[in-house]
Amino acid sequence: MTTSTQAASFAAGCTAFRGPLLHFLSEPGLGTPDPGSYSYFTDGLLVVADGRVQAVGEAAELLPQLPVGTPVEHSPEGLILPGMIDTHVHMPQLAVMASYGTQLLEWLETYTFPTESRFADADWSAKQSKVFLDLLLAHGTTSALVFSTSHKVASEALFRAAHDYNMAIATGRVMMDCNAPDGVRDTAEASYEESRELIARWHGTGRQRYAVTPRFAATSTPEQLTYAGKLMTEAEGLLMQTHWAENKAEIAWIAELFPERASYLDVYDHFGLLGPRSVLAHGIHIDDADRARLAETGTRIAFCPTSNTFLGSGLFDLSSARGADVEVGLASDVGGGTSLSMLVTMAEAYKVCQLRGQSLNPFQAFYMATLGNAKVLHQETETGNLAPGKMADFLIIDRAASPIQQLKHSAERDLSGILFDLMILGDDRSIRRTYIAGQCRYDRDAAQGAAHAGLSV
């Protein structure tokens, strides 16, 4: 891809970033990647002004067009990528990551609900929201669909912190009025009224969007699920997020709670919670009828490989989902997931596919973590790649962040090899800098320097 942008169109005070550069234009596919699905420049240039991409293309073509004195950050041994996007992650669950020895339902009762009860405190929610966003940035995630808790103050705190950072975050107050302990259980009416208040205050404020968030069918009464469906009709552009078909014991429980419904998916369908703006996390134990209904309604699945393996839930069937034209996003699902890094998430997704006798090539994996996830969340007009006019959310990747990566980096690698090395061996150490709307919000070297200075005091 080249650009015809003229020098006169570049704003005075723009900045530029030079180095190998990759972004996606369309889906590469699970098999041999479509060469027209991405643009790769071995010596590329990204031009940014006023928070947005001005141009992207060959450095040799664009450098002469820059205004005199334009700063150019050069990373010849790195890789410039769009910021990564997470389609399912829990802000309050950082402290329950790597909690030992249980599957889903016991894990919720033992670890998750007690931890989430602390978020009734506004000060705690504000502190933890900032910690959460700082960690996302350190792991190269610039945007996410996020579960908060059932406390209005927790969603307020996350929205406020994300707005201050100018990050594109979608979240919502969790709805759960039954089968949950004191401290996190709400009421159907309160969840509806407080969600409406949050929508009025935050949906469409800056880069923030609201997601109607029933936790999962087991923790909502029919009255509350009716309210959730009603909310989806009351404002334009809302998302809906919940959990679905993650664990066999969970599925059996739903069948007991909703005997009148034909299936777990039919519960959500009945209450008006399926549609193109709905993201169902997991979707492991499903059948062809489920996939057909998802495709018919445009409902999306968030594939959460590290939590699915950690909690022993099962192996997601990516090939069957895409074969049925179901849109699939990639997600960390922290705290059931074991890393906020989308690089680590890609690696686990690759292994899940391998165990199913399927293939996940690195082009498709990086597409899913960037433009693919932007499409799942209906934000591809603003994020997902580095096309001119989009928000300048991007990363400077260190391709040799660990000793083994340094060893492999010394050999001649084609693009597929470069991406596969990052996908299998990369983690948060690979994120050198993270930019939000053209502003550096995370600098690995500065963060490490500050940490070392603190240790030496």
Salient structural properties:
nine-stranded parallel beta sheet, alpha/beta, 457 residues, disordered N terminus, four-stranded mixed beta sheet
What would your notes on this structure say?
The protein has helices at residues 59-62, 104-116, 122-138, 152-165, 188-202, 222-231, 248-257, 264-270, 288-297, 305-310, 318-323, 342-355, 362-376, 403-409, 415-425, 444-456; strands spanning 15-24, 38-49, 52-58, 72-74, 78-82, 84-90, 141-147, 168-172, 174-175, 209-214, 239-244, 278-282, 300-303, 328-330, 394-398, 431-436, 439-443. The chain is of the alpha/beta class and 457 residues long. The strands form three sheets. Strands 6, 7, 8, 9, 10, 11, 12, 13 and 14 form a nine-stranded parallel sheet that branches. A four-stranded mixed sheet has the order 3-2-1-4. α5 links the parallel β9 and β10 (209-214). α4 packs parallel to α5 (188-202) and α13 (362-376) packs across α15 (415-425). The longest helix is centred in the N-terminal third of the chain and has 17 residues, at 122-138. Residues 1-8 have low confidence and may be disordered.
